[in-house]
Write the structure tokens for this entry.
Amino acid sequence: MASSPETLPGGHIIGLGETRRKDNWWASPIMTVVYIGAALAYGTWAAFQGDHYQAGPYLTPLYSPTTLADPAAIGGAGGGYGHVWFGNFPSWWPSFIPASPALLILPLPGFLRLTCYYYRKAYYRSFMGTPPGCSVEGVLKGQYGGETKLFLWQNFHRYALYLALIYNVILFYDAGISFFYKGSFGVGVGSIILLVNASLLASYSFGCHSFRHLFGGRLDCFTCDSPSKAQHSTWKFATWFNERHMQVAWISLGFVMFTDIYIRSVSHGIIPDLNTWGANMSAAARPAAAALGL
Amino acid sequence: MAKRTFKIWRGNAEGGEFVTYETDITEGMVVLDAIHQIQSESANDLAVRWNCKAGKCGSCSMEINGKPKLSCMTRMNSMPATGEIVIQPMKAFPVVKDLVCDVSYNYERNKMIPPFSPRPREADGTHRMVQDDVDRIQEFRKCLECFLCMDVCHVHRDHGKQKEFSGPRWMIRLASLEMHPLDIVDRIPLIKKEHGSGYCNITRCCTEVCPEHINITDNGIIPLKERVVDRFYDPIAMLMRKVFGPRKPHKKLPVIND
Amino acid sequence: MSHDIKTIEHDVIVIGAGGAGLRAAIECSAHGLDTAVVCKSLLGKAHTVMAEGGMAAALRNADNRDNWAVHFRDTMRGSKFLGVYRMAELHAKQAPERVKELEDWGAVFDRTKDGLINQRNFGGHRFPRLAHVGDRTGLELIRTLQDHGIHQGFEVYMECKAVKLIKDGDAVAGVLCLWKDSGRFMLLKAKAIILATGGAGKMWRVTSNSWEYTGDGAAMAYDAGAELMDIEFVQFHPTGMVWPPSVRGTLVTEGVRGEGGHLRNSEGKRFMFNYVPERFASETADTEEEAAKWLAGDKEARRPPELLTRDVVARAIYNEVKAGRGSPHGGAFLDIASNRPAEYIKKKLPSMYHQFKELAELDITTTPMEVGPTTHYFMGGIRVDPDSQQATTVKGLFACGECAAGLHGANRLGGNSLSDLIVFGKLAGDGAAAYAKGLGTAPSISDDQVTDAVRHVTAPLNRETGENPFQLHDELCEIMGEHVGIYRTEDGLGAGLEKLVGWREKIKNAKAHASSQYNAGWHEALDLESMAVVSQAVAMAAKERKESRGGHSRADHEVEDYDHWGNINIILKKGDDDEMVLSHYQREAPDPFLEKIAKATVEELDAMTASGEVEI
């Protein structure tokens, strides 16, 4: 029959996306594309804004640490708000790139997630079709080289982890200082969100496969001396998070974006931040750093 | 329950076709029971490989409605309530006849792995290992060698890279040796080169189909990939080895707490 | 003609690739012999993988009061004193080293707190003695032997069925084999042949055995003139699944009871307290309190009655069900959930948890299982020399594992089969090596024997019409279930033998359709021929033995008769006119020292050990 599909001995159909599966195998890759796509799109948009990343004591994680700041940015760092490590953006900064501190810092978490052993599964399947689903025919037939050639850089995941662990400390610092507004301790919805966000991102690092390997998994004997027994404990700790790595990856990615949306909205004055200080955290309530002559 | 329709692929390496059979399904039946019933009633020469029918030997691997499964552990009531049930041999192995594949590749691949080589026994004639140390490898040793992971692995299934990459079953076997507290052989260069650990792109279909629920990717293959990174890709680790010399494992015995 | 058949020559051929066959092949290779293994399934799929609970060896890791003499005594008592003393001695003495050797080859047993091989309790074993890996010890054994074996240089012919032993005079000369995938024949010539083909439990419908268990080794050996011994003793394992119907018979490991599982009837009573045999009464707890103390680790407490030998427990469940106190699907309740926490059960009995979850949709960590007797094991088989494992009446033919008789007598203790495989697998390898090396010239093979065999084997394919082999198998199960089941009677066995005569006529006309390539029907037809021999042997021997002992229960002769039958092994052999001839073998007096150990009380044996009379 001319219309019947080309099959192999065994009755398997040849062709991209072909399978005899009867379930909705395509639902999961589509959801992945939508979710990761939305996060990427929002993250990029937010990173290019360059303003409204700080509301009161709350600094959005997308802009932390603020290495350089633009004093003219409304709702930005400087002027006693948050931390700016190295001062203002230099004068030679090209005008076609927004002076956004996020652009200086986002590549790092980006690289961590790009080389993450969980996200690799997600995007190899959903974006690259190697394979699109289990027992579903994929692309690149015969030319596939896995992570032996084009993707060798995946092996540097652990370096992204090292930096991410530092980043985790900074985010906890950010969360810590968000409990202090104008020198007095208090609690706001924003500070709680920042604390949850820092915890989720730390959980993501603790579940990292490289973390699990470097802090214990590399040993063959966990019980042979005290150092290895200690590493067994960290390995077990990491294993607990590792078993939940996918869930934490999804939740933490979404929560980072949510945190940014929240702080950005508060800064824009779209929503008020409930807090014990009774303070209005919107940018309108305070001038930009430049207006203060800083 | 009532009659169900099965579309079973019949043929050999030269080709074949789906043949439709009907058989009565009663309570508690698994797919393999239905196939046996069909074999006994109307297809005496139907080739199907099976042994224990209890999920312990890993012989009756096949693709049921497109999914690689052990037919003895797939209950009929887990199938969609209506419609025909499509039964095929595994795709990643050459078909011998009907539902039976030539899985000799696996036996060749196993031979490439240097066997377990323990350190000498202790003075009292025993080997001492603590349960905490063997938990990891006992997970891998649950493997039934059903080869469903090999069937679903797209490196073999879609790309035919059997030569370059040994596949999940053999990665797991390598992991069980590599992490064995008694073993003294270094298989890391072999894991990278001959067994091609880099070909795995950790898309985890092997883990999804494993009937023993072995966490093949996260507990087996990724730790091996990380060990390969230690050896071949991590400049700091390489420098440390240059300065301090290679780590010497197995010099010590487990510390037993009384 | 045989010259069309590919012929390959080896020193030794091992038939069967379970634990015994692989261990034998490893030993032959170690002796420098050119060895090959022939197996019906893929390598690593043999029935050994289904063994669950563990392998018995007096390693003394879990309880240092254990030693070879205690293991030997347990085995002999378990065998109802019908086991071969010398074999039980060899087994008890050599098992520990065989188990440790497995560890050298890569086996990863569960560990004690001291980092040694852990051991668990099992029925009939006085001390915790079973080296185990959760409840998948058989898988560990076969994978270890397989992964070690593939580097020892022996050939493995997989999915290749041995169909006939070829003889040169009174010695074996080779074996005719049939490749499953191509349907072609292959002739293997050898100086010695080791049979390690397992049992024949597939003759019953409710069985824990896989399709391979069709008695091929016993039938081929019988055909070649070997003696079959103790074949009436078929072990019905007390705990097989009873529901759903399609998995009725699938094994539930004795490890469940070893880990503390209770058996209860529909009235909620622990009925095993009512079934303690007199000989075991002094060593068995008589109250639930004492049994609970034992489980908690009290060394003074006696063992719970659930851990009596398998024949006793199987009969007890059968009788409870018959008396109307069975579970809804006709079994007994096996309850581990109320004695152990869920995490412990999942850790120690993972495949039981999995099996019930997937096949019966039941969670054993919360709900009692329903279990009933299932055909499990052949204590009898090919009669062999206790030291060399050579068949008594065929030179160059060796047997080990389940297909050989002797070690287990009338009843096998759980855990003694895996250790049987490795102890006697090795000894058979040694025996065959010694024989092959001592053989001057290689035996020769006459074309006629091969041509006849090929004609016979291909007959089902060449018939125009005939019986459906699958339905014939079903009929056999019907006959065996009805007449040669757990309880037997003179009349029932007589009627069964009658029916078997008719059935054997039918299988002469079994028809296999279509081509010879991987033809399930054809292979089924060939397996029927093996089962024809063994079914007849079991029924004849069972009818002859007019007493109840171990796995053989006669409703019309309910007592153990030590004066007469206790001294007799029943032997079956092919007669001059190809008819099955039954004879009595009068057992010789055992070694007095061994007999003293076997029949000693616990206190007497402990005294013998303390005084140094028994060296450990």
